[in-house]
């Protein structure tokens, strides 16, 4: 696993929140992308935000959000009936790694990243949420070739 620490600037996002199993966020992304497509939103990146550690928080209380990064100048004029939230990813230091493979195998990768941050880097994890950037499109990419960049916020 190749892990780097990068200092990231803030990034402006549109998010659609989800509570429950992280496996259920796919439906939320479908709703968000339907809105994105129908409103010609200038998306820069597709991002999943994850606030809770599933080893510590009951499944029904896990908090996540399907997001798209947008230019600073973009304004939402029609939410399409969705509870969209304009927000930003916090700037700061993040431990990052790239994973290639199916989304359902990301759990152990997050575990390795967390262990590396705490045991090797000896850094605390920030209260800011961790997030994933989905580099390619799962609708036209075989699961074994999906690319996901993981970002763990550091205190």
Describe the structure.
By secondary structure, the chain is of the alpha+beta class. The chain has one domain: Multidrug-efflux Transporter 1 Regulator Bmrr, Chain A, CATH 3.20.80.10. The protein has two helices and eight strands; from the N terminus they run ββαββββαββ. It has an eight-stranded antiparallel β-sheet with strand order 1-6-8-7-3-4-2-5, covered by helices on one side. The chain starts with a strand and ends with a strand. The mean pLDDT is 95.
Oligomerization: single chain
Strand order of the largest sheet: 1-6-8-7-3-4-2-5
Poorly predicted runs of 5 or more residues: none
Distance between the termini: 22 Å
What layout of secondary structure does this protein have?
Layout: E1 4-8, E2 11-19, H1 25-38, E3 45-50, E4 63-69, E5 85-89, E6 92-100, H2 106-120, E7 130-134, E8 147-153
Antiparallel strand pairs: 1-6, 2-4, 2-5, 3-4, 3-7, 6-8, 7-8
């Amino acid at each position: 696993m190749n892990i780097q620490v990068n200092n990231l600037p803030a990034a402006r996002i549109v998010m659609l929140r989800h509570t429950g199993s992280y496996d259920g966020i796919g439906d939320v992304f479908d709703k968000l992308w339907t809105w994105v497509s129908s409103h010609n939103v200038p998306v820069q990146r597709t991002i999943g935000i994850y606030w809770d550690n599933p080893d510590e928080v009951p499944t029904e209380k896990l908090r996540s959000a399907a997001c798209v990064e947008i230019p600073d100048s973009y304004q939402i004029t029609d939410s399409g009936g969705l509870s969209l939230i304009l927000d930003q990813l916090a700037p700061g230091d993040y431990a990052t790694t790239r994973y290639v493979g199916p989304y359902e195998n990301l759990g152990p990768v997050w575990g390795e990243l967390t262990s590396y941050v705490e045991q090797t880097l000896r850094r605390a994890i920030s209260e800011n949420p961790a997030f994933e950037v989905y580099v390619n499109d799962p609708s036209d990419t075989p699961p074994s070739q999906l690319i996901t960049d993981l970002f763990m916020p550091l205190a």
